[in-house]
Design a protein that fits this description.
There is one protein chain. Helices cover 35% and strands 28% of the residues. The chain has two domains: 2-135, Rossmann fold (3-Layer(aba) Sandwich); 143-335 and 384-391, 2-Layer Sandwich (Dihydrodipicolinate Reductase, domain 2). β10 and β11 (219-226) form a beta hairpin. By secondary structure, it is of the alpha/beta class. The chain has helices at 11-21, 37-47, 62-72, 86-96, 117-120, 123-129, 143-154, 182-189, 230-237, 252-263, 281-288, 328-335, 339-356, 373-382; strands at 2-7, 27-34, 53-56, 76-79, 99-102, 132-135, 158-168, 193-197, 200-204, 210-215, 219-226, 243-249, 272-274, 277-279, 302-313, 316-327, 364-367, 388-391. The protein has 14 helices and 18 strands. The N and C termini lie far apart (44 Å). The structure holds NADPH dihydro-nicotinamide-adenine-dinucleotide phosphate. It comes from Bacteroides muris (ex Afrizal et al. 2022). Residues 138-385 form the Saccharopine dehydrogenase-like C-terminal domain. This is Saccharopine dehydrogenase family protein. Residues 4-134 form the Saccharopine dehydrogenase NADP binding domain.
Length: 397
Amino acid sequence: MGKVLIIGAGGVGTVVAHKVAQNPDVFTEIMIASRTKSKCDAVVKAIGNPNIKTAQVDADNVDELVALFNSFKPEIVINVALPYQDLTIMEACLQSGVNYLDTANYEPKDVAHFEYSWQWAYKKRFEDAGLTAILGCGFDPGVSGIYTAYAAKHHFDEIQYLDIVDCNAGNHHKAFATNFNPEINIREITQNGRYYENGEWVTTKPLEIHKDLTYPNIGLRDSYLLYHEELESLVKNFPTIKRARFWMTFGQEYLTHLRVIQNIGMARIDEVEYNGMKIVPLQFLKAVLPNPQDLGENYEGETSIGCRIRGLKDGKERTYYVYNNCSHQEAYKETGMQGVSYTTGVPAMIGAMMFLKGLWKKPGVWNVEEFNPDPFMEQLNKQGLPWHEIIDGDLEV
Ligand code: NDP
């Protein structure tokens, strides 16, 4: 049905490649390209399908991307490199007539700040070119938006309160490690918290608000309020929402390490002089931390991510909780990667599948909740991320 180019051969890229290869009726030709070609070759070897092509590309360089796109001629690019590369890849897509999908919104390298404005600014150009760009199609952002759209379509007349809850109850047996790219992860968590209430954004100190929440099959976990990018598009696309928040669990050991990292200056993203050269402390830290791709083998436990929603149906108050639990070990057995890479890579593959099947094809730049959630929800059940729902239970939030 279609040719796909995956950019990025990290934890998420590896899962995307496995899942794309498992669906040969949809993805008829596959290429994986990244900064380091040997990593792409290793992914292909692990999958054991020699028909998957590989290439080296610097995704910060539009000309290099355009040359690659023009030679392979993909219909869609799945961008699972880093958020820094979103705009160059979108630019190259426009120049070569290729459709686009990513899992994280653009961030400039020198400021730890993310918002959709930079990518939404491309809307008219994608529309005029007749190309589709699908933004934020991992788990959160991604499935969190699709769950919300599904709830709005089938369970509510009006969504009023939305709490996205993300629990990782896994244990990788390392003193400290991040589950995805450490630089992006630490930048995200050390920022101020932010949530939406009555038409305004409320800012909190980093990790200032937290509460115990109960996760299915896991139990109580201390959950911290963070700002997360999908809140920005969800409150815009569902204007009846009065309050929207995002919660993520952290263990005390993780938070203690994080505090020390910050206190000693290792979370800095500005350049410092070291032995006659300039280094960015957070990038140096990434080089010495465990590689998230190597955590899978000894990772036990599971993740549980979902949406807890309160609103009105037929004039009555209703609550709805929709979630997925994903086992790190099962993810590892299938793809060689842990659950966080798995829960991101599977939805990215499904998003590209939705596009190639013509179900999510509309020129412009869109967040996932702007498409029909039904065929995506159906695929989640088939592709390894089954979901469950609890209607009119206690949401705790
Ligand atoms: P990794 O760091 O493991 O992988 C990133 C990959 O991108 C690496 O292969 C890296 O190459 C490659 N890369 C980096 N810079 C360039 C460049 N300039 N040109 C070409 N390739 C480049 O990250 P993850 O796999 O953990 O995460 C991938 C993406 O998924 C991130 O954007 C992350 O924010 C997002 N994510 C989204 C989630 C969601 O639920 N929506 C959850 C988790 C992650 P090299 O190997 O040479 O360094």
